Amino acid sequence: xxxxxxxxxxxxxxxxxxxxxxxxxxxxxxxxxxxxxxxxxxxxxxxxxxxxxxxxxxxxxxxxxxxxxxxxxxxxxxxxxxxxxxxxxxxxxxxxxxxxxxxxxxxxxxxxxxxxxxxxxxxxxxxxxxxxxxxxxxxxxxxxxxxxxxxxxxxxxxxxxxxxxxxxxxxxxxxxxxxxxxxxxxxxxxxxxxxxxxxxxxxxxxxxxxxxxxxxxxxxxxxxxxxxxxxxxxxxxxxxxxxxxxxxxxxxxxxxxxxxxxxxxxxxxxxxxxxxxxxxxxxxxxx
Length: 287
Fold this sequence. Notes:
Layout: H1 8-14, H2 19-25, E1 27-31, H3 33-42, E2 47-52, H4 54-59, H5 61-70, E3 74-77, H6 80-86, E4 95-100, H7 113-122, E5 128-132, H8 138-150, E6 155-159, H9 168-174, E7 183-187, H10 189-198, E8 202-206, E9 212-213, E10 223-227, H11 236-241, E11 244-247, H12 259-273
Parallel strand pairs: 2-3, 5-6, 5-10, 6-7, 8-10, 8-11, 9-11
Antiparallel strand pairs: 1-4, 2-4
């Protein structure tokens, strides 16, 4: 059992709270049972170490510890003081994992770069994507990733000017969805829009000034929702570069929806028009 909170290993894990360290090492920390469980279940090849307290070793034996050991992952028993020293949150709930940012990543970045990662997504012929441009709030970014996962999106695309999706606040707010679908980071927005268009994917700017109401938007063809900054929305040049500008109708007295809520509404509208396997459209939705 690791019991020294001042050990070098402990300091190296805690250092992952800094973006510069995450970028240099190509690793990040996942705190709490939900995130660790999903990392072990869906991204075991990227999990470097799992740390659990004695209590958590028993509590999460079936859904975390045994699957981790079955995948030949390192599972380390640590004291509660050590886990507290490793974690960025006040209540890490007895379990923490260190995970590679991308499979095989070293020195803080995938050698192939964002363009290659986007190309890999496009090779799968996606039908539903979401692009975050200049999204700075960790909670919003994480909630959009979670909503995209729930709505069946094929990937989440993130601009280079947006928040680091591997920061602890974003990771926690994804509730494990970070490990369920591709999340491509570091993208240039203008180049990404051009690339999507070249692959036959319509780009839909979500904006309160849109002339097309969400219920009237044709969401049956492959498309990508483009979401802007929490405070100022989408720049004119980004809106102008998209194929359509769509707004969510406000029926009550609310001035607007926040970014994460608007993104979830748009993604679920897309999911309703998205054909199921075999070409069957869910009952109650127009095809």
